[in-house]
Amino acid sequence: MTKHDPNLSLLFHALADPTRRSILTRLAEGPAPVTELSEPTGLRLPTVMRHLSVLEEAGLIATSKDGRVRTCAIVPEALRPVRTWLDEQRALWETRLDRLEAFAMKAMKERTP
């Protein structure tokens, strides 16, 4: 069994929410101020700030403040552990499914006269 990675859990928790995923999608286009990120959500600013806090805690975004304007930027390399874990899971399940297919084919051949 794979060792529990708390950082991976933080990443998946952050990615689990559709609002946070939409914020990341917007930030993939470039940095944006918090007010711009909050507009399409329809949420109040404090709620958006909590979402941004979760993203920042997971390392998916970085924020900076210039005067009264807080700007957020995506940190794409933070997704690397998720990608690695998903690749490992894909390889594991492909191997299992290949073995299942071989077993099923062998069983079908043995049943055929």
UniProtKB/TrEMBL annotation:
One of its GO terms (molecular function) is DNA-binding transcription factor activity. SMART domains: HTH_ARSR. Signal peptide: none annotated. InterPro entries: ArsR-like_HTH, HTH_ArsR_DNA-bd_dom, WH-like_DNA-bd_sf, WH_DNA-bd_sf. Residues 1-94 form the HTH arsR-type domain. PROSITE patterns: HTH_ARSR_2 (PS50987). This is ArsR family transcriptional regulator. It comes from Ancylobacter aquaticus.
